[in-house]
From TrEMBL:
UniProt cross-references to Pfam families, sorted A to Z: I-set
Domain Ig-like: 37-138, 154-235
Signal peptide interval: 1-26
Protein name per its UniProtKB record: Embigin
Entry GO terms, CC: plasma membrane; synapse
Biased composition (Basic and acidic residues): 285-305
Length: 324
Protein backbone atom coordinates (compact mmCIF):
# COMPACT_ATOMS: atom_id res chain seq x y z
CA UNK A 1 0.00 0.00 0.00
CA UNK A 2 2.80 2.36 0.85
CA UNK A 3 4.38 1.79 -2.53
CA UNK A 4 1.08 2.50 -4.20
CA UNK A 5 0.62 5.72 -2.24
CA UNK A 6 4.16 6.83 -3.09
CA UNK A 7 3.54 6.13 -6.74
CA UNK A 8 0.41 8.26 -6.68
CA UNK A 9 2.28 11.11 -5.01
CA UNK A 10 5.02 10.90 -7.64
CA UNK A 11 2.47 11.03 -10.45
CA UNK A 12 0.79 14.04 -8.84
CA UNK A 13 4.10 15.87 -8.60
CA UNK A 14 4.85 15.15 -12.26
CA UNK A 15 1.42 16.42 -13.25
CA UNK A 16 1.91 19.65 -11.30
CA UNK A 17 5.34 20.12 -12.86
CA UNK A 18 3.87 19.69 -16.35
CA UNK A 19 1.17 22.28 -15.66
CA UNK A 20 3.69 24.88 -14.45
CA UNK A 21 4.56 27.47 -17.20
CA UNK A 22 8.02 27.38 -18.68
CA UNK A 23 10.13 30.28 -17.31
CA UNK A 24 11.79 30.65 -20.73
CA UNK A 25 8.45 31.35 -22.35
CA UNK A 26 7.40 33.85 -19.71
CA UNK A 27 4.00 34.61 -18.25
CA UNK A 28 1.97 37.37 -19.97
CA UNK A 29 0.80 38.50 -16.54
CA UNK A 30 4.33 38.59 -15.17
CA UNK A 31 5.67 42.07 -14.56
CA UNK A 32 8.96 41.08 -16.18
CA UNK A 33 7.26 40.55 -19.60
CA UNK A 34 8.14 43.24 -22.20
CA UNK A 35 7.01 43.47 -25.84
CA UNK A 36 9.19 44.62 -28.75
CA UNK A 37 9.61 48.41 -29.04
CA UNK A 38 7.43 50.03 -31.63
CA UNK A 39 10.41 50.89 -33.81
CA UNK A 40 11.61 47.27 -33.86
CA UNK A 41 8.11 46.10 -34.76
CA UNK A 42 8.08 48.49 -37.68
CA UNK A 43 11.54 47.34 -38.76
CA UNK A 44 10.31 43.76 -38.72
CA UNK A 45 7.21 44.72 -40.69
CA UNK A 46 9.18 46.59 -43.33
CA UNK A 47 12.23 44.32 -43.32
CA UNK A 48 12.22 44.16 -47.12
CA UNK A 49 12.58 47.93 -47.55
CA UNK A 50 15.66 49.48 -49.11
CA UNK A 51 18.11 51.05 -46.67
CA UNK A 52 18.95 54.71 -47.15
CA UNK A 53 21.64 56.56 -45.18
CA UNK A 54 22.54 60.25 -45.56
CA UNK A 55 24.75 62.54 -43.50
CA UNK A 56 25.53 66.21 -43.00
CA UNK A 57 28.73 67.67 -41.48
CA UNK A 58 28.71 70.78 -39.31
CA UNK A 59 31.61 72.62 -37.71
CA UNK A 60 31.76 75.01 -34.79
CA UNK A 61 32.81 77.98 -36.93
CA UNK A 62 30.09 77.57 -39.56
CA UNK A 63 27.26 80.09 -39.42
CA UNK A 64 25.19 79.14 -42.48
CA UNK A 65 22.77 76.23 -42.41
CA UNK A 66 23.79 73.11 -44.35
CA UNK A 67 21.15 71.51 -46.57
CA UNK A 68 20.92 68.22 -48.44
CA UNK A 69 18.20 67.02 -50.82
CA UNK A 70 17.08 63.39 -50.70
CA UNK A 71 14.92 61.92 -53.49
CA UNK A 72 12.73 58.98 -52.47
CA UNK A 73 10.17 57.36 -54.75
CA UNK A 74 9.14 54.36 -52.61
CA UNK A 75 8.95 53.49 -48.87
CA UNK A 76 12.41 53.17 -47.32
CA UNK A 77 14.24 52.55 -44.07
CA UNK A 78 15.94 55.92 -43.73
CA UNK A 79 18.82 56.95 -41.49
CA UNK A 80 19.77 60.62 -41.14
CA UNK A 81 23.12 61.44 -39.52
CA UNK A 82 24.35 64.84 -38.39
CA UNK A 83 27.96 65.10 -37.29
CA UNK A 84 29.18 68.14 -35.38
CA UNK A 85 32.86 68.92 -34.80
CA UNK A 86 33.86 71.31 -32.02
CA UNK A 87 36.75 72.10 -29.69
CA UNK A 88 34.33 72.51 -26.75
CA UNK A 89 32.83 70.05 -24.32
CA UNK A 90 30.70 67.50 -26.13
CA UNK A 91 29.16 66.15 -22.91
CA UNK A 92 27.17 69.34 -22.41
CA UNK A 93 26.16 69.63 -26.06
CA UNK A 94 22.40 69.64 -26.57
CA UNK A 95 21.01 68.02 -29.76
CA UNK A 96 17.43 68.36 -30.99
CA UNK A 97 15.60 67.23 -34.13
CA UNK A 98 12.61 68.80 -35.89
CA UNK A 99 10.37 67.86 -38.79
CA UNK A 100 9.49 71.13 -40.45
CA UNK A 101 8.62 73.18 -37.31
CA UNK A 102 7.57 70.26 -35.10
CA UNK A 103 9.90 68.89 -32.43
CA UNK A 104 10.65 65.15 -32.76
CA UNK A 105 10.49 63.34 -29.43
CA UNK A 106 10.62 59.63 -30.33
CA UNK A 107 13.58 58.66 -28.14
CA UNK A 108 13.83 55.12 -29.57
CA UNK A 109 14.55 56.56 -33.02
CA UNK A 110 17.58 58.59 -31.89
CA UNK A 111 21.14 57.54 -31.26
CA UNK A 112 23.88 59.99 -30.21
CA UNK A 113 27.53 59.03 -29.91
CA UNK A 114 30.81 60.88 -29.73
CA UNK A 115 34.19 60.09 -31.19
CA UNK A 116 37.10 62.37 -30.38
CA UNK A 117 35.92 65.94 -30.83
CA UNK A 118 33.00 64.95 -33.10
CA UNK A 119 29.44 64.33 -32.02
CA UNK A 120 27.24 62.05 -34.14
CA UNK A 121 23.45 62.28 -33.90
CA UNK A 122 21.43 59.69 -35.80
CA UNK A 123 17.70 59.60 -36.52
CA UNK A 124 16.30 56.41 -38.04
CA UNK A 125 12.72 55.93 -39.15
CA UNK A 126 10.50 54.34 -41.79
CA UNK A 127 9.23 56.55 -44.62
CA UNK A 128 6.01 54.83 -45.63
CA UNK A 129 3.72 57.62 -46.92
CA UNK A 130 3.71 61.12 -48.34
CA UNK A 131 3.02 62.72 -44.93
CA UNK A 132 6.50 61.75 -43.78
CA UNK A 133 8.13 63.68 -46.59
CA UNK A 134 9.44 67.14 -45.82
CA UNK A 135 12.30 68.85 -43.97
CA UNK A 136 14.16 67.12 -41.13
CA UNK A 137 16.60 69.34 -39.23
CA UNK A 138 19.19 68.74 -36.52
CA UNK A 139 20.22 71.51 -34.08
CA UNK A 140 23.40 71.62 -32.00
CA UNK A 141 24.15 73.75 -28.92
CA UNK A 142 22.77 77.05 -27.76
CA UNK A 143 23.53 78.69 -31.12
CA UNK A 144 21.50 75.90 -32.72
CA UNK A 145 23.76 75.23 -35.67
CA UNK A 146 21.42 73.69 -38.20
CA UNK A 147 21.56 70.93 -40.77
CA UNK A 148 18.50 70.15 -42.90
CA UNK A 149 17.56 67.09 -44.94
CA UNK A 150 14.85 67.80 -47.55
CA UNK A 151 13.03 64.60 -48.47
CA UNK A 152 10.89 64.66 -51.62
CA UNK A 153 10.00 62.53 -54.60
CA UNK A 154 12.28 62.71 -57.68
CA UNK A 155 11.84 65.77 -59.87
CA UNK A 156 10.91 65.58 -63.55
CA UNK A 157 12.41 67.63 -66.36
CA UNK A 158 11.16 68.79 -69.74
CA UNK A 159 12.55 70.89 -72.56
CA UNK A 160 13.54 74.35 -71.33
CA UNK A 161 13.26 76.08 -74.71
CA UNK A 162 9.93 76.44 -76.55
CA UNK A 163 9.25 73.76 -79.16
CA UNK A 164 8.43 75.43 -82.52
CA UNK A 165 6.50 73.62 -85.25
CA UNK A 166 3.99 74.35 -88.06
CA UNK A 167 0.31 73.88 -88.76
CA UNK A 168 -0.52 70.41 -90.07
CA UNK A 169 2.61 68.77 -88.66
CA UNK A 170 2.95 66.41 -85.70
CA UNK A 171 5.25 66.96 -82.74
CA UNK A 172 6.43 65.09 -79.62
CA UNK A 173 6.75 66.60 -76.13
CA UNK A 174 9.02 64.79 -73.67
CA UNK A 175 9.44 64.61 -69.89
CA UNK A 176 11.85 62.44 -67.92
CA UNK A 177 13.38 61.84 -64.51
CA UNK A 178 16.80 60.38 -63.73
CA UNK A 179 17.13 56.95 -62.10
CA UNK A 180 13.47 56.66 -61.18
CA UNK A 181 10.49 54.47 -62.06
CA UNK A 182 7.15 56.28 -61.62
CA UNK A 183 3.95 54.33 -61.22
CA UNK A 184 2.31 56.47 -63.92
CA UNK A 185 2.60 59.69 -65.91
CA UNK A 186 -0.06 62.34 -66.50
CA UNK A 187 -0.10 65.12 -69.10
CA UNK A 188 -2.03 68.37 -68.76
CA UNK A 189 -2.90 71.16 -71.16
CA UNK A 190 -4.10 74.69 -70.44
CA UNK A 191 -7.67 75.87 -70.77
CA UNK A 192 -7.26 79.51 -69.90
CA UNK A 193 -5.87 79.49 -66.36
CA UNK A 194 -7.02 75.91 -65.65
CA UNK A 195 -4.86 72.80 -66.13
CA UNK A 196 -6.88 70.05 -67.80
CA UNK A 197 -5.69 66.39 -67.85
CA UNK A 198 -5.29 64.95 -71.33
CA UNK A 199 -7.39 61.82 -71.90
CA UNK A 200 -6.01 59.92 -74.89
CA UNK A 201 -9.03 57.62 -74.88
CA UNK A 202 -11.42 60.50 -75.60
CA UNK A 203 -9.24 62.47 -77.97
CA UNK A 204 -7.32 60.67 -80.74
CA UNK A 205 -5.32 63.83 -81.37
CA UNK A 206 -2.97 62.79 -78.53
CA UNK A 207 -0.84 59.68 -78.03
CA UNK A 208 1.11 59.04 -74.80
CA UNK A 209 3.97 56.56 -74.79
CA UNK A 210 7.61 56.15 -73.78
CA UNK A 211 10.45 53.79 -74.56
CA UNK A 212 11.63 53.73 -70.90
CA UNK A 213 9.88 53.79 -67.52
CA UNK A 214 11.63 57.01 -66.51
CA UNK A 215 10.25 59.03 -69.42
CA UNK A 216 6.98 59.94 -71.10
CA UNK A 217 6.26 61.27 -74.58
CA UNK A 218 3.16 63.15 -75.68
CA UNK A 219 2.55 63.12 -79.43
CA UNK A 220 0.23 65.81 -80.78
CA UNK A 221 -1.09 65.14 -84.32
CA UNK A 222 -2.58 67.40 -86.99
CA UNK A 223 -1.46 70.59 -85.31
CA UNK A 224 -3.53 73.74 -85.41
CA UNK A 225 -2.54 77.20 -84.25
CA UNK A 226 -4.82 76.84 -81.21
CA UNK A 227 -2.84 73.74 -80.14
CA UNK A 228 0.03 76.00 -79.19
CA UNK A 229 0.47 76.91 -75.54
CA UNK A 230 1.60 75.35 -72.27
CA UNK A 231 1.73 71.65 -71.50
CA UNK A 232 2.64 70.02 -68.17
CA UNK A 233 3.76 66.54 -67.14
CA UNK A 234 3.51 64.93 -63.70
CA UNK A 235 4.96 61.67 -62.38
CA UNK A 236 3.17 59.61 -59.71
CA UNK A 237 5.30 57.72 -57.13
CA UNK A 238 4.35 55.50 -54.16
CA UNK A 239 5.36 58.37 -51.86
CA UNK A 240 3.59 61.15 -53.75
CA UNK A 241 3.47 63.12 -56.98
CA UNK A 242 6.14 65.25 -58.55
CA UNK A 243 5.67 68.93 -59.26
CA UNK A 244 4.38 69.85 -62.70
CA UNK A 245 7.04 70.49 -65.32
CA UNK A 246 6.24 73.12 -67.94
CA UNK A 247 6.73 72.56 -71.69
CA UNK A 248 5.93 75.32 -74.20
CA UNK A 249 4.63 74.55 -77.72
CA UNK A 250 4.54 77.19 -80.48
CA UNK A 251 2.53 76.38 -83.64
CA UNK A 252 3.17 78.66 -86.65
CA UNK A 253 1.30 79.00 -89.94
CA UNK A 254 3.25 78.75 -93.22
CA UNK A 255 2.87 82.47 -93.78
CA UNK A 256 5.00 83.21 -90.76
CA UNK A 257 8.30 81.98 -92.27
CA UNK A 258 7.35 83.60 -95.60
CA UNK A 259 6.93 87.04 -94.06
CA UNK A 260 10.67 87.77 -93.79
CA UNK A 261 11.17 86.55 -97.37
CA UNK A 262 8.33 88.74 -98.65
CA UNK A 263 9.70 91.67 -96.72
CA UNK A 264 13.11 91.16 -98.37
CA UNK A 265 11.49 90.99 -101.82
CA UNK A 266 9.57 94.21 -101.11
CA UNK A 267 12.76 95.94 -100.03
CA UNK A 268 14.55 94.78 -103.21
CA UNK A 269 11.69 96.00 -105.44
CA UNK A 270 11.66 99.36 -103.65
CA UNK A 271 15.42 99.69 -104.04
CA UNK A 272 15.30 98.84 -107.77
CA UNK A 273 12.48 101.36 -108.28
CA UNK A 274 14.49 104.07 -106.55
CA UNK A 275 17.54 103.28 -108.70
CA UNK A 276 15.49 103.44 -111.93
CA UNK A 277 13.93 106.75 -110.94
CA UNK A 278 17.36 108.14 -110.20
CA UNK A 279 18.60 107.00 -113.62
CA UNK A 280 15.63 108.57 -115.41
CA UNK A 281 16.04 111.81 -113.51
CA UNK A 282 19.77 111.91 -114.27
CA UNK A 283 19.27 111.30 -118.00
CA UNK A 284 16.55 113.92 -118.16
CA UNK A 285 18.76 116.41 -116.43
CA UNK A 286 21.57 115.74 -118.87
CA UNK A 287 19.30 116.24 -121.90
CA UNK A 288 17.85 119.55 -120.68
CA UNK A 289 20.95 121.75 -121.58
CA UNK A 290 21.05 120.38 -125.18
CA UNK A 291 17.39 121.14 -125.68
CA UNK A 292 18.01 124.67 -124.45
CA UNK A 293 20.84 125.17 -126.88
CA UNK A 294 18.78 123.83 -129.81
CA UNK A 295 15.95 126.15 -128.84
CA UNK A 296 18.35 129.11 -128.75
CA UNK A 297 19.77 128.14 -132.17
CA UNK A 298 16.27 127.90 -133.66
CA UNK A 299 15.36 131.28 -132.23
CA UNK A 300 18.60 132.71 -133.54
CA UNK A 301 17.88 131.37 -137.02
CA UNK A 302 14.39 132.77 -136.94
CA UNK A 303 15.69 136.18 -135.92
CA UNK A 304 18.34 136.02 -138.63
CA UNK A 305 15.73 135.17 -141.25
CA UNK A 306 13.51 137.94 -140.16
CA UNK A 307 16.41 140.38 -140.21
CA UNK A 308 17.31 139.29 -143.77
CA UNK A 309 13.80 139.90 -145.02
CA UNK A 310 13.70 143.32 -143.45
CA UNK A 311 17.04 144.22 -145.03
CA UNK A 312 15.95 143.10 -148.53
CA UNK A 313 12.83 145.22 -148.50
CA UNK A 314 14.63 148.61 -148.56
CA UNK A 315 16.91 147.37 -151.30
CA UNK A 316 13.97 146.46 -153.45
CA UNK A 317 12.47 149.88 -152.91
CA UNK A 318 15.73 151.56 -153.89
CA UNK A 319 15.98 149.53 -157.06
CA UNK A 320 12.44 150.36 -158.04
CA UNK A 321 13.06 154.05 -157.56
CA UNK A 322 16.16 153.95 -159.72
CA UNK A 323 14.37 152.21 -162.57
CA UNK A 324 11.74 154.83 -162.57
Amino acid sequence: MRSLTGLRALLLLCLLAAMRPDPAEGDPTDASFTSLPVREEMMAKYSNLSLESHNISLTEGSSAAVEKNIALERPSDLTLICQFTTSGDLNSMNVTWKKDDELLENIDAFNTTKKGNTLFSQYRFIVSNSKQMGNYSCFFGEKELKGTFTIKVPSVHGKNKPLITYVGDSTVLKCECQNCHPLSWTWYTSNGSVQVPIDVHKNDKYVINGSHANETRLRVKHLLEEDGGSYWCRAVFPLGESELEHVELVVLSFMVPLKPFLAIIAEVILLVAIILLCEVYTQKKRSDPDNGKEFEQIEQLKSDDSNGIENNAPRLRKNESIEQ
